[in-house]
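Backbone shape codes:
***
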Amino acid sequence: MRRLLKAAVTGAITGSLLVSCAPSAPKEQPSLPQATAEMSSPAPLTPVSSDYADINGIKLYHEVYGQGEPLVLLHGGLMTIGEMSTLLEPLAKTHKVIAVELQGHGRTADTDRPLKLETMGDDIAVLLDQLNIPQADIVGYSLGADVALRAAIQHPDKVRRLVVISTAHKHKGWYPEVQEGMGQVDHTLADGLAQTPTGAFAKEWPDPKRFAAFLDKLGVEMKQDYDWSDEIRKLPMPVLLVFADNDSIPQKNIAEFFALLGGGVKEPGWMNTQLSKARLAIIPGYSHYNFMTSTELPAVIDKYLADPLTNPPAGAAAASQASGDNTKQ
């Protein structure tokens, strides 16, 4: 077990750190979500623009691709924009994609600011303001999905539609092995995690030694026993949940998440079928660790974004039409 866990940490770990840490004995390094050799290569697209935004005590790096309706793309833990190319490239064909590197990831160097999902959710709203974008779709994977959820909960007027990929609505929504691994992330993993894209970029931060301290902060945040059920139930915008069939979240908890959004709680009817605003997709043949290699994933998201039933009016009109409780739909 020790050799397996050590290999998982010191290998090419570029998946989402926020989830799927394998069980281990004390002092053993957890098996962290990782991209295997199958992980998509960095996006060959050239961004329309790239910049740093001064937001809430950090310089938030972001790139803009394509044209069309704005869409914010958020990566998983210890990933960067490059590892999201499987989604970035197809989405940029029909959308103006704002790809962000979150606090302590890639070119967004960590600072003395505490690491909180709620604060990172605020960062996305402020970035949209600075880019003069009143409202955008948000697509997030794992850690990025958590940040997307917080942005939607805290700033619902800013989020037109939400795509949540491979995350749980509560800490206990993960398999027990995942929760155990989350509690083991700290600075002692810094050498092994230097192999990740974020670990590599951290060497170029103004203070590269911050990477170890960042892992401590990340570990503290990952241990939080959160439950966002009540807040998720009140989300006004359409939401697509996407999971792998062998994800790090039990199917029963996926169904619970979907039900919070009004999905799967009643028979839709044969005549005059009534669908909820929520959508659920389970893509076969993947786990959390290699989900970003899925060639089916972009098509599922693209179909959702093109669906007239999930295409609300922009601005205040969308909020005025939204129900305050998804379970009543």
Observations:
- DSSP finds twelve helices and eight strands in the chain.
- The domain at 2-328 is CATH 3.40.50.1820 (Rossmann fold).
- Confidence is low (pLDDT under 50) at residues 1-43, 315-323.
